Amino acid sequence: MITARAAASFEPVGRSVATARAFVRDTLQGWGFADIVDDAVVLTSELVTNAVVHAGTHADVLCLRSEDGVRIEVGDRYPEREIPLQGSPATMGSPDREGGRGLQLCAAIATRWGVEYTPTHKQVWFQLDLPDRPVGTRAAGPSLPPDLLPLADSRVRVAVVQIDRSGAISSWNEDAEELFGYTADQVTGKPLTDLAAWPHTPGTGTGIAEALQLSRWEGSYGIRGATGRVTPVYASHLRVRDTDGEPSTVCLLVRDHERAVLQTPSRHPASDTAPADGQSADPFEVFIGSPAPDDLDGLLQRTVERARDMLDGDSAFLLLATDDETELEVRASTGLPSARQRFARVPVEAGPGRYGSARMPAVHEDLLAVPGAVPLLNNTGMRSVVTVPLKVEGRLTGSLGVAAESPGRYSNEEALRLQFAADRIALAVESARLGELERLRRGSLSFLVEASDLLAGTLDRDQTLALMAQMTVPTLATWCAVYTIADQASEPYLSYVLHEDEELIDGIKSLLSKVSPPDPVPTPGARIWAAPAAAAHDSALRSSMRSLGLSGSPTHQVSSGIGPTLATAAAVGGETVVLPLVARNRVIGMLTLGKPTDEHFRQEILELAEDLSRRAALALDNARLYSERTAISQSLQRSLLPPGLPDIDGVEVDVIYRAAGEGNEVGGDFYDVFPISDGAYGFAIGDVCGTGPHAAAVTGLARHALRLLAREGLSGPAVLERLNSAILDEGDRSRFLTLLYGEMRPQADGSAELKVVCAGHPLPLRLRQDGTVEPAAEPQPLLGVMDDLELYEQTVILDPGDVLLCVTDGVTERREGTRMLGDDGLADVLTTCTGLTAGAVAARIMRAVERFASDAPSDDMAILAMRVA
């Protein structure tokens, strides 16, 4: 009877095999079938390999649970392939042949197996039965001598913790209190995951929260005690139902070094070949030890240490292959300067012949006879070395080597032993590497999303340069420098330098300023730039010589600069790479990343930096274009404003102008004061319909036309009538215009005569010395609407001390909710300006307008004040 099923489909790529193994392992562990997990995983691995690697099709895996075992079906979509008949092992080929081994293993391991066909699929299945055990017996281990039994404290404490269906603690015994320091009252009702220090169990993809839902589970994690200290524990979980039928989990926990109390022993066939010392027969466990490290760096470091000890070497190293298998990257070493060699890269094919490739085992009896055969060991004192490849499903994933200081230490026998160990750990290393790569890629995506948001949030060039550097240091590099190129004829310019230690920035900037900048090559990808490291080395050498008095100058005169110089040299003396900043098919700069002395960049970091450089280049070019267009816009806008106010004898003139909108210097409002002829001056203030560039275009037309027409000797009405015709001639681009235009002539008695035409504009206000305010003109039709205008001018005499105030409607229509300043409000403010200069009058009016409402003005504003002295 089938009691549970689980299914998954895997794409025809090599990495699907590892994913299928994990799927079957997690499924069977969740069902409580730990006794047959290993056999099921081995068989599944071979069958899925046949499907996705050899047949090149998708693999469909189906797990079926029954009361006495499990049936696993692996289907592919290539039924034409020849399948040997069961019972005819001779047709399966040689055991050394890669194809067909899955069926051989099925015949050797499975209780039952077979092959089924459909018109579109072929399906290989196998059945694994649970081993028969007497009632009450779970597992039994061999008898061991007393000196080999696990060492425990005076009393072994077993914490018993019960977890309800929601994952909260419902029971907590005295041993749990003693081990972790919490009383039952302190933890009851809290989720166990709040106390767990490690989110995942080593060697599995199952988290503690998921493990609590499985029928049976064993593994390691940590519990954070009341003191904050993490206690490593080994746990055995059993899923049960309470008297009310509610599911809960009983957890038994002991200190991790006492795991033998709870851990189910590994199954071994009953034979006389079992190790007498009680060690595990699993080659991986024999080589790596138990527990295996759960992180890639820990696994690699344990591997090189065990490999060195196994062959009694002086050093060992492990390299991992890049995705394209063209280079190997140093990831772990022992007995070598690991800090100097970490992440260094060497080619897979080092030279011609069988021993020049990392894809084959190699033994070098004396490296002095073949200098450069193993570049990693250059100048390390190692004489003999044996290297073997790490392969998974025929694909090179790395290389493991052991070296000794004396020649002739290794032969083919040691190579075979090391190759056997490499075969045992290759799969675990690849699985851990893929896990690390997945975490790095997720982190990279998050990093790039955040970087894109930050770069898109600014159009300021200097801020973009600073963001570019701050995002790379220290996430991608220890220091960085950004070179920019203004145009194709310009040389690269050092624009920004950043180091994670701010005290070293000036030293690095000084050092780079003495080095020729890198060539602006548009080739994508990172390239090595050796000049900074060479300059750093020379600088450090000169500093050291000066400190020893070898330069001919007194030591005390240079000793104060030795420390910073040596620190700068150490900071820049490592690997330096250059990435081009290419935007819109043009190199606009270079991003330079550096490491301290003898450190190297990981390939994943360089790929991430390349992605960042593409985004940063576009952001930097956008900032450049924005700056250029802003400068052009501001230059054009400034050309629409009057060059300055003329000095008029006996009359004070002042103007305040505010254009609405960020970055606008000119809008729809305009003003002008200019000489017409001897003793006569024209003045104007107007408002074009709307704001922004379109209104500014009509502004320029109106201001320049006024000057030209007024200097032709035309009267005020004639000037405005011709301007009206010019606006209408603009056609669809025309906009109506309100305009106050006047001519002023100072008189010999100290007064001033004004002739004014007010075409649809807010009326000018006259402030007398006694504080009375009155309009100084009458309203007439605005411009840009009708062809035939009948305008007339009015004469106004300003006595000494009188003020004429002219404003645009942005002042009078200033609003706060339903309130508006209006003409009356403006007149009230003007009455308080008696005795003030023209500039003080304009300033008081502007302050009143700004205080009238809290919001920023939404319309252009212009204030023109003239006072007869």
TrEMBL record:
Keywords: Hydrolase
Entry annotated with the keyword Hydrolase: yes
CDD domains: HATPase_RsbW-like, PAS
KW Hydrolase (keyword) present: yes
Domain of life: Bacteria
Residue span(s) of domain PAS: 160-190
SUPFAM superfamilies documented for this protein: GAF domain-like (SSF55781), PP2C-like (SSF81606), PYP-like sensor domain (PAS domain) (SSF55785)
Region annotated Disordered, chain positions: 263-282
Cleavable signal peptide: none
Protein name as catalogued: PAS domain-containing protein
Protein's organism: Streptomyces antibioticus
